[in-house]
Amino acid sequence: MGRSPCCEKAHTNKGAWTKDEDHRLIDYIRLHGEGCWRSLPKSAGLLRCGKSCRLRWINYLRPDLKRGNFTEEEDQLIIKLHSLLGNKWSLIAGRLPGRTDNEIKNYWNTHIKRKLIGRGLDPQTHRPFNSPTANETAAALTTADVKKSPECLGCVKAVNNPPIITQFGAVSQTIDFNNSYPDVTSTKVKSDSCNSGTTTDDGPTYRVPGQTNMGQEDINLELTIGLSKFQGEARNSTASSAESRVVGLNSSPSPFGLFYEPMKVEMVGSNKGQNGEICSCSELGFEMNSKGQGGCCSNCQRKSGYLISRYIGPLLGS
DNA sequence: AAGAGGGGCAACCGCCTGGTC
DNA sequence: AGACCAGGCGGTTGCCCCTCT
């Protein structure tokens, strides 16, 4: 089945954007907000494809974009994230506020790739070129894996044959589920859509599919597994002095110790009554989104931000 | 000073996914 | 269930600019 073009290509401009076009787009979005990119060009008086407008806004015009060179910290973070996620630029961007997937992708291809090669590392596998297992290293979780199997890594394993995974290879240590998230079992975690061992008592260990330990010692990923600030609060949920507590979970916990959906939070103490949901970003030490309500995360500003924090936040530490 | 070559990056293309009807 | 649509994503292209000769 063919698809109709996203816009009438015969009457659209292409190539570099002019200042006038930028201003029209900015003004329109300031007035009406983002969304409905298909109809935006006509409404804004732009002879552009809706997709082109979206790209221009997201990659260049958005006011919260960070301009300038990448810092050494950002470099290291990108390398870490790429080693875990592969070319999932949008996920990586979700972890770097103010940076876009396109920017990171370009930066990777023009700078970091070369940097790693200079260190004798394969930029795709993050292993030394002479590593005998370099070719065996598969990409980390794919977007498709994540989207198709949001319940737990057990389901992801089913997508990623072979399914038996008993070791966490992206880090230099194995993760004991109970140790990495000791309170999951004591806070009545719902596991309504998957029963493939997410809350077992015998402490199963996991690894990211396709990754092994071999060669990892050559790259100090400095990954840590630990409880986040918010998890710490949840751990104290029985204490009367706690300001908030987890009262429900939309989904099961991951073996990484994260929830796949925003956590439902009941505020107690001085904030009583301001119940809502909290983005997993909070687990990384960020603030709860405004008024504690669910929806778009005020920190990451994008859905992929949720994903990144949900899936690998704890691996990176808070 | 001018042309060649390469790097950097904005923008485009085509495919995928999720939502709706 | 499947067709359709909008939005989103990763890969690639092509232009501009800088450096080198």
UniProtKB/TrEMBL annotation:
GO cellular-component term (any): nucleus
Gene3D superfamilies for this protein: Homeodomain-like
One GO process term, biological-process aspect: regulation of DNA-templated transcription
Biased composition (Polar residues): 186-202
PROSITE patterns reported in the protein's UniProt record: HTH_MYB, MYB_LIKE
CDD domains: SANT (cd00167)
Primary localization: nucleus
SUPFAM superfamilies recorded: Homeodomain-like
SMART domains found in the cross-reference section: SANT (SM00717)
This protein's record includes keyword ATP-binding: no
Gene Ontology molecular functions: cis-regulatory region sequence-specific DNA binding
InterPro entries for the chain: Homeodomain-like_sf, Myb_dom, Myb_TF_plants, SANT/Myb
Pfam families associated with the record: Myb_DNA-binding
Domain HTH myb-type: 9-61, 62-116
Record region (Disordered): 186-213
Keywords: DNA-binding, Nucleus, Repeat, Transcription, Transcription regulation
Location relative to the cell: Nucleus
Highest taxon listed in the record's lineage: Eukaryota
Residues annotated as domain Myb-like: 9-61, 62-112
Protein name (Swiss-Prot/TrEMBL): Transcription repressor MYB6
Species of origin: Spinacia oleracea (Spinach)
Primary gene name: LOC110787621
